[in-house]
Amino acid sequence: MSHGDAVRGGLGDQHEVHESEVAAYRGPCVLVAPDRGDGAPEPVTAQVTLSGFVQPIDGAYHWQGRLQPDEQVTALAARVGRKPLAVHLPGGDPVTARLGERNPWGGYRISGTGTPPYISPED
């Protein structure tokens, strides 16, 4: 079965391509954490790969991806943990996201629910 083939099973049709197989966006992003009360928040620029899918259980669009290893991202993750932050892509509106676990290569998972920071393939 190729990556683009639909998955068929006893529970009915599943989404056609697993969310990790096709990137909806790959490129730069800007992460902005809420102000800590000590001045304006500092944006962090990073490289990201994102994809997403509509979750049939809740009907919401779930998007996620990986931030490439970067010292500024590591410092941001240490400061904000899993609290919400804003992610901006070039030409897009900011959306709320959360950082997840650090992978063995030093990058971080990023995810959100609802409107993705990129133009959704379903649009």
From TrEMBL:
Organism superkingdom: Bacteria
Entry-linked InterPro entries: DUF4873 (IPR032371)
Stretch list, region Disordered: 90-123
Record Pfam families: DUF4873
DUF4873 domain span: 24-118
UniProt name for this protein: Uncharacterized protein DUF4873
Organism: Mumia flava
Lineage start: Bacteria, Bacillati, Actinomycetota, Actinomycetes, Propionibacteriales
